[in-house]
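Worked example 4.2. Below are the chains of a multi-component assembly; read each line carefully before continuing.
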Amino acid sequence: MDPQKTKFYIAILLASVIIAIIIIYFAISLIKHQRRSLAINRQNVLSEIATLEKDRTRMAADLHDELGPLLSVIKMRINSIDVTDEDDREQQELSSRQIDEVLERLRGIARNLMPNTLVRKGLVKAVEEFTNAFNQTNHLKVHFESNLNQDIDEERSINIFRVIQEICQNALKHSKASQLLIRLNETKKGIQVLCEDNGVGFDYEKMLKEGKGLGLRNLKSRVEIMGGQFMIESRPGKGTQYVFDVPNAPA
Amino acid sequence: MWITIDTVLNLTIWVPAIVGAIRYKKINSAYYLFIILIWAGIVNENFSIYIINKGYYNIIPYNVYSLIEAFLVICLFKRWKLFNAQKWIFYVILMLFSLVWFIEVIIVTRFREFASYFIIVYSFTIVLCSINQLNKLIVTSEGNLLKNATFLICIGFILYFTYSAFVETFLKFDFYNLPLLRQRIYSIVVYVNAFVNLLYAYAILWIPKKQNFILPSSLPA
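Applying the procedure described above to all two chains together yields the following structure tokens:
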């Protein structure tokens, strides 16, 4: 080959190699920064959720341990007043009943904020207790099934419990459903949460585009910080299905 | 005609230098090194013209300037916290630059030739650092990147130093015996330079103002 031509081809080759190296480095560096940014975001969400749970625990304890006994003392004092008049006795009984209602409501709020059962007896019992209480007070009937045998660490238990709580609230507020099925499955890789309602459904993509769905974004964040995956299948008029795959915690 | 266009395009370096001089006292200190880099470029260019007119080669000042330019750019990246995650990379790069420059300029050529290998090494390193900085901004920055001084400066670095690395590589491998190739490459250099200079001037306009912190020392006694 003509030496001039050879030189020209070498020049072209060299230029191509330099450009290729620059492009490859660009891609690698972009991926690296993307991953670092995702890790930082995940850490931020984790801290926010941890702070939120800490606040909820503190508020539940304050309501249960401080306001509860105080109301009980008030009720005892009211009942200890010796009344002779029939109207006064009626008022005394009414006040006593109202204090009982307030106490019951207070316990309910404290339970919602941080259920004692979740800490003492674990996730399945806590969800059972929650769905039973939910069925007593709402028209939406929640059916809960579980085949979980493994012990789940407290952090994951709280997150899964919150996810289920949020789904129940969403179904009650928006779906117009009469039935909601919740199933906790133990899989080889971890835990699967399946939820299905018979409500009106919604356009998930459209809702995200419109910047709505704060509750759903919270669900997604909670699943993501557990390293899990979140899938949602919903169409107007066809009900909604949620599937969460939460992997086992690393040993 | 060519000389006129070349001269005009070469004068574009004065645009960022003047804009930098006007804004110097107001800008964030993280960008001081960039303004110094522009001024150093002007000083080097004028000094080179001066000694060439006196009948000498500008090899020594150019080689010294190359080392200063490489150090300034890497220190600028450090100031922009590019090496925060792995600080040792900064020192390795400085050591690498010093070593290549010392071997090529002092030991091998003894100031008799331009430090082509050093220019190739540092240009390529700066391009990679710029890409890294650029990607960091793409991922983390929330504002308009076309109004981000760091982003614009990095684009300028990538364009200028990629071209610089090409020119030096072709020169070193003697590809300039191809007349057409040489003509094309030199005709583009001038335009790349002018474009990058104007980009730098635009970038300087977007450099954020320095923050006025209220320190205890500034409080009335």
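Take a moment to check your reading of the output against the notes. The CA atoms of residues 45 and 51 of chain A lie 10 Å apart. The helical segments of chain A are 3-80, 86-113, 116-121, 123-137, 154-175, 204-209, 214-225.
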